[in-house]
Amino acid sequence: MSHEPGAVLKPLVKLGRDPADCWTWLANVDVGGVASKQFGGKRMPARRWMWAQLFGPIPDGLVVTTACGSKTCVNPHHLRACTQADACRASVNTSLLPADVIDIKRAKKDAGPNTARVLADKHGCSPQTIRDIWKRRSWSRAKPNYGPRKNPTGSPAPVAAANPPP
Ligand SMILES: [Zn+2]
């Protein structure tokens, strides 16, 4: 294998056109639809592997989640290491992209008893998040949210608001 920059990742991920796009994992996906990687004889979520490759060992007790909500995304800018409790809380506001929210809102009109759960599985968030969106408790204005918000006044957000909220 060559050691050109990017050569190692190339067979593993499909990069988007825009740097802010998801990096879709092309290798194995586990039964839950989460991208996974064989590493050191063990299977681990690919996003954990990616995080550890880039940032070092994951501190004990932390989980790695994706801010975009995709189970197969390993874009480091979309990855967050946080506690399980934070991950659950964060899913209320941070794990969905505008297109997801539009999809969820659209599904509301013919929602059945299981729709919230099905959508939650599809988008990697909790059923409560889906119901919150329907009731407009969260995401009444869908807007993108990338990466950790360390610098609120800093660089402009990546362009993604192709579908402004109604
Ligand atoms: Zn992503």
TrEMBL record:
It comes from the Bacteria. InterPro entries: His-Me_finger_sf, HNH_nuc. Residues 134-166 are annotated as: Disordered. Residues 47-86 form the HNH nuclease domain. It holds the Pfam family HNH_3. Residues 156-166 have a biased composition (Low complexity). This is HNH nuclease domain-containing protein.
